[in-house]
Write a structure and sequence with these properties.
The complex is a heterodimer.
Chain A lengths: L4 E3 L2 E4 L5 E6 L6 E8 L3 E9 L2 E5 L6 E5 L5 E5 L8 E8 L9 E2 L3 E5 L1
Parallel strand pairs in A: 2-11
Antiparallel strand pairs in A: 1-3, 3-8, 4-5, 4-9, 5-6, 7-8, 9-10, 9-11
Chain B lengths: L2 E3 L4 E5 L4 E3 L2 E3 L5 E7 L6 E5 L10 E2 L10 E3 L8 E9 L3 E7 L3 E6 L1
Parallel strand pairs in B: 2-11
Antiparallel strand pairs in B: 1-4, 3-8, 5-6, 5-9, 7-8, 9-10, 9-11
Classes of the chains: A mainly beta, B mainly beta.
Protein backbone atom coordinates (compact mmCIF):
# COMPACT_ATOMS: atom_id res chain seq x y z
CA UNK A 1 0.00 0.00 0.00
CA UNK A 2 1.19 3.49 -0.72
CA UNK A 3 1.84 5.55 2.37
CA UNK A 4 0.35 8.86 3.36
CA UNK A 5 1.27 11.55 0.86
CA UNK A 6 1.32 15.28 1.36
CA UNK A 7 1.59 18.07 -1.17
CA UNK A 8 3.33 20.33 -1.58
CA UNK A 9 6.43 19.33 0.37
CA UNK A 10 7.75 22.86 0.70
CA UNK A 11 6.04 26.21 0.57
CA UNK A 12 7.08 29.81 1.03
CA UNK A 13 4.45 32.46 1.68
CA UNK A 14 4.37 35.99 2.98
CA UNK A 15 2.47 37.35 5.94
CA UNK A 16 -1.19 37.92 5.27
CA UNK A 17 -1.45 35.33 2.52
CA UNK A 18 -3.38 32.12 2.80
CA UNK A 19 -2.25 28.59 2.11
CA UNK A 20 -3.83 25.21 1.40
CA UNK A 21 -2.10 21.95 2.16
CA UNK A 22 -3.22 18.56 0.93
CA UNK A 23 -3.07 15.09 2.42
CA UNK A 24 -3.92 11.76 0.81
CA UNK A 25 -4.37 9.00 3.37
CA UNK A 26 -3.54 5.36 3.00
CA UNK A 27 -6.16 3.63 0.88
CA UNK A 28 -9.06 2.52 3.06
CA UNK A 29 -8.24 4.87 5.91
CA UNK A 30 -11.08 7.17 6.79
CA UNK A 31 -9.57 9.19 9.61
CA UNK A 32 -7.13 11.99 8.89
CA UNK A 33 -5.46 14.07 11.57
CA UNK A 34 -3.29 17.15 11.20
CA UNK A 35 -0.43 18.21 13.42
CA UNK A 36 1.82 21.24 13.56
CA UNK A 37 5.46 20.70 14.47
CA UNK A 38 7.66 23.60 15.57
CA UNK A 39 10.94 23.70 17.48
CA UNK A 40 9.35 25.68 20.28
CA UNK A 41 6.02 23.92 20.75
CA UNK A 42 6.80 20.48 19.40
CA UNK A 43 4.01 18.40 17.87
CA UNK A 44 0.56 19.83 18.41
CA UNK A 45 -2.76 18.42 17.30
CA UNK A 46 -4.73 20.64 14.95
CA UNK A 47 -7.85 18.64 14.02
CA UNK A 48 -9.16 15.28 12.94
CA UNK A 49 -11.59 14.44 10.18
CA UNK A 50 -13.60 11.29 9.78
CA UNK A 51 -16.12 10.64 7.04
CA UNK A 52 -15.98 14.27 5.90
CA UNK A 53 -16.75 15.60 9.39
CA UNK A 54 -14.45 17.33 11.80
CA UNK A 55 -14.50 15.12 14.85
CA UNK A 56 -11.87 16.73 17.06
CA UNK A 57 -10.16 20.07 17.18
CA UNK A 58 -7.05 21.24 18.96
CA UNK A 59 -6.39 24.61 20.48
CA UNK A 60 -5.64 26.66 17.39
CA UNK A 61 -7.25 29.90 16.18
CA UNK A 62 -9.99 29.93 13.62
CA UNK A 63 -7.50 30.88 10.90
CA UNK A 64 -6.72 27.17 10.78
CA UNK A 65 -9.41 25.15 9.08
CA UNK A 66 -9.75 21.95 7.18
CA UNK A 67 -12.01 19.69 5.28
CA UNK A 68 -12.24 16.14 4.08
CA UNK A 69 -13.56 14.87 0.82
CA UNK A 70 -15.60 11.76 0.08
CA UNK A 71 -12.43 9.90 -0.97
CA UNK A 72 -10.96 10.70 2.48
CA UNK A 73 -8.40 13.12 1.09
CA UNK A 74 -8.06 16.11 3.34
CA UNK A 75 -6.98 19.69 3.01
CA UNK A 76 -6.06 22.21 5.63
CA UNK A 77 -6.14 25.94 5.11
CA UNK A 78 -4.44 28.69 6.99
CA UNK A 79 -5.67 32.20 6.32
CA UNK A 80 -3.95 35.49 7.10
CA UNK A 81 -0.60 33.84 7.65
CA UNK A 82 1.61 34.98 10.50
CA UNK A 83 5.34 34.47 10.96
CA UNK A 84 4.61 32.05 13.77
CA UNK A 85 2.78 29.74 11.39
CA UNK A 86 6.13 28.68 9.95
CA UNK A 87 6.25 24.98 10.77
CA UNK A 88 6.21 21.46 9.52
CA UNK A 89 2.62 20.34 9.02
CA UNK A 90 2.08 16.64 9.33
CA UNK A 91 -0.96 14.64 8.50
CA UNK A 92 -1.64 11.14 9.71
CA UNK A 93 -4.23 8.60 8.76
CA UNK A 94 -5.78 5.57 10.37
CA UNK A 95 -8.61 3.25 9.56
CA UNK A 96 -11.38 4.37 11.88
CA UNK A 97 -9.60 6.76 14.17
CA UNK A 98 -10.00 4.64 17.29
CA UNK A 99 -7.76 5.56 20.20
CA UNK A 100 -5.90 2.27 19.98
CA UNK A 101 -5.10 2.48 16.29
CA UNK A 102 -1.74 3.22 14.81
CA UNK A 103 -1.51 6.54 13.05
CA UNK A 104 0.54 6.56 9.87
CA UNK A 105 2.26 9.84 9.21
CA UNK A 106 3.06 11.58 5.99
CA UNK A 107 6.39 13.26 5.25
CA UNK A 108 5.02 16.68 6.04
CA UNK A 109 4.73 20.03 4.33
CA UNK A 110 7.29 22.56 5.44
CA UNK A 111 5.80 26.05 5.42
CA UNK A 112 7.92 29.15 5.69
CA UNK A 113 6.19 32.46 6.23
CA UNK A 114 8.23 35.55 5.44
CA UNK B 1 -5.53 18.64 31.44
CA UNK B 2 -3.43 16.02 29.72
CA UNK B 3 0.30 16.40 29.72
CA UNK B 4 3.21 14.29 28.49
CA UNK B 5 6.64 15.06 29.87
CA UNK B 6 9.92 13.84 28.46
CA UNK B 7 12.50 15.35 30.78
CA UNK B 8 15.55 14.68 28.59
CA UNK B 9 15.93 16.57 25.34
CA UNK B 10 19.17 14.81 24.55
CA UNK B 11 20.48 11.44 25.62
CA UNK B 12 23.77 9.86 24.61
CA UNK B 13 24.78 6.29 25.37
CA UNK B 14 27.52 3.99 24.17
CA UNK B 15 26.77 1.08 21.90
CA UNK B 16 25.89 -1.95 23.96
CA UNK B 17 24.86 0.08 27.00
CA UNK B 18 21.31 0.03 28.36
CA UNK B 19 18.95 2.79 27.32
CA UNK B 20 16.02 4.30 29.18
CA UNK B 21 14.01 7.18 27.76
CA UNK B 22 11.71 8.65 30.34
CA UNK B 23 8.09 9.58 29.85
CA UNK B 24 5.64 10.76 32.47
CA UNK B 25 2.05 11.64 31.80
CA UNK B 26 -0.89 13.35 33.38
CA UNK B 27 -4.36 12.27 32.36
CA UNK B 28 -7.56 11.77 34.32
CA UNK B 29 -8.82 8.58 32.81
CA UNK B 30 -7.43 5.50 31.13
CA UNK B 31 -4.84 6.63 28.61
CA UNK B 32 -3.49 4.85 25.60
CA UNK B 33 0.25 5.40 25.47
CA UNK B 34 2.57 5.16 22.53
CA UNK B 35 6.18 5.64 21.57
CA UNK B 36 6.79 7.11 18.14
CA UNK B 37 10.22 7.32 16.54
CA UNK B 38 11.65 9.46 13.79
CA UNK B 39 14.88 8.30 12.18
CA UNK B 40 16.97 10.73 10.19
CA UNK B 41 15.19 11.74 6.96
CA UNK B 42 12.29 9.39 7.65
CA UNK B 43 8.75 10.05 8.67
CA UNK B 44 7.37 9.70 12.15
CA UNK B 45 6.37 6.11 12.82
CA UNK B 46 4.93 4.06 15.64
CA UNK B 47 7.49 2.14 17.67
CA UNK B 48 5.21 0.51 20.19
CA UNK B 49 2.06 0.98 22.26
CA UNK B 50 1.37 -0.17 25.75
CA UNK B 51 -1.79 -2.09 25.01
CA UNK B 52 -0.09 -4.61 22.78
CA UNK B 53 2.75 -5.27 25.26
CA UNK B 54 5.06 -6.02 22.38
CA UNK B 55 8.79 -5.66 21.98
CA UNK B 56 9.88 -3.89 18.84
CA UNK B 57 13.54 -3.73 17.84
CA UNK B 58 14.39 -4.82 21.36
CA UNK B 59 12.53 -1.91 22.97
CA UNK B 60 9.94 -2.40 25.67
CA UNK B 61 7.82 -0.01 27.68
CA UNK B 62 5.72 -0.70 30.72
CA UNK B 63 2.83 1.44 31.79
CA UNK B 64 3.12 2.25 35.47
CA UNK B 65 -0.16 3.82 36.48
CA UNK B 66 1.01 4.45 40.03
CA UNK B 67 3.95 6.55 38.87
CA UNK B 68 2.11 7.67 35.70
CA UNK B 69 5.13 6.68 33.66
CA UNK B 70 5.75 4.89 30.39
CA UNK B 71 9.50 4.70 30.12
CA UNK B 72 11.09 3.16 27.02
CA UNK B 73 13.89 0.70 27.62
CA UNK B 74 16.37 -1.37 25.68
CA UNK B 75 19.05 -3.51 27.30
CA UNK B 76 21.72 -3.05 24.63
CA UNK B 77 21.73 0.06 22.46
CA UNK B 78 22.64 -0.18 18.78
CA UNK B 79 23.91 2.58 16.51
CA UNK B 80 20.76 2.32 14.39
CA UNK B 81 18.71 3.30 17.44
CA UNK B 82 19.92 6.88 17.10
CA UNK B 83 16.77 8.86 16.42
CA UNK B 84 14.19 11.21 17.88
CA UNK B 85 11.75 9.50 20.22
CA UNK B 86 8.34 10.87 21.14
CA UNK B 87 6.06 9.62 23.86
CA UNK B 88 2.40 10.21 23.04
CA UNK B 89 -0.93 9.85 24.78
CA UNK B 90 -4.43 9.35 23.51
CA UNK B 91 -7.64 8.69 25.31
CA UNK B 92 -11.35 8.85 25.09
CA UNK B 93 -11.38 12.22 26.79
CA UNK B 94 -8.92 13.67 24.33
CA UNK B 95 -10.78 12.11 21.49
CA UNK B 96 -10.00 9.38 19.07
CA UNK B 97 -6.79 10.03 17.17
CA UNK B 98 -5.96 13.12 19.15
CA UNK B 99 -2.39 12.25 20.00
CA UNK B 100 -0.82 14.46 22.62
CA UNK B 101 2.95 14.38 22.23
CA UNK B 102 5.84 15.02 24.54
CA UNK B 103 8.63 17.27 23.37
CA UNK B 104 10.80 14.35 22.35
CA UNK B 105 14.21 12.95 23.28
CA UNK B 106 17.02 12.77 20.79
CA UNK B 107 18.95 9.58 21.39
CA UNK B 108 22.50 9.28 20.12
CA UNK B 109 24.25 5.95 20.33
CA UNK B 110 28.01 6.40 20.32
CA UNK B 111 29.94 3.65 18.53
Amino acid sequence: KAGVTQTPRYLIKTRGQQVTLSCSPISGHRSVSWYQQTPGQGLQFLFEYFSETQRNKGNFPGRFSGRQFSNSRSEMNVSTLELGDSALYLCASSWRGDVQETQYFGPGTRLLVL
Amino acid sequence: AQRVTQPEKLLSVFKGAPVELKCNYSYSGSPELFWYVQYSRQRLQLLLRHISRESIKGFTADLNKGETSFHLKKPFAQEEDSAMYYCALSGRRTGANNLFFGTGTRLTVIP
